[in-house]
Amino acid sequence: QVQLVESGGGLVQAGGSLRLACTASGSIFSINAMGWYRQAPGKQRELVASVTSGDRKNYADAVWGRFTISRDNAKNTVDLQMNSLKPEDTAVYYCNAAIRRYWYQSESDYWGQGTQVTVSS
User: Fold this and answer.
1) What is the pLDDT at residue 80?
2) 8-25, pLDDT tens digit by residue?
3) Which residue from 22, 49, 98, 107 has the least number of CB within 10 angstroms?
4) E runs forming strands in the chain
């Protein structure tokens, strides 16, 4: 079994900061990309930021310069530091990881349960 467990969501005023954390655990051989997605009510899930095992990072235009993704390969964790938050950042945020459970298997996508981020104006 593989689990992604998220923490750190909550309610914050516009202009404030939050830090999300995600830990992957279980039977894991390797992890390729890890990232954060979000889904606002009535909208499709969208990529917020991602980072490869080689620390190559990618950000959605909407969060560029405000959010920072970081990863600890030794601990199988990925964090998202969110600064200068805006009401439009309100969404459920999901951790995602492309995980190979055994050396002979291909990668599969795994998702966390989601954590709510609410930004008040």
Assistant:
1) 98
2) 999 999 999 999 999 999
3) 107
4) 2-7, 10-13, 18-26, 30-39, 46-51, 57-59, 67-72, 77-82, 91-100, 108-111, 115-120
Residue 96 has a CB neighbour count (10 Å cut-off) of: 21
Cβ 80 vs Cβ 28: under 8 Å:
no
> What one-character DSSP code corresponds to residue 56?
-
* DSSP code, position 105: S
Shortest CA distance to 47 belongs to which of 55, 35, 56, 33? Answer: 35
Q: pLDDT tens digit string along 51-87?
A: 999 999 999 999 999 999 999 999 999 999 999 999 9
Residue with tokens 């530091």: 81
Instruction: Please answer whether residues 96 and 35 qualify as being in contact, where contact means their C-beta atoms are separated by less than 8 angstroms.
Output: yes
Neighbours of 99 (CB within 10 A): 23
For residue 54, give the 3-state DSSP assignment.
Answer: coil
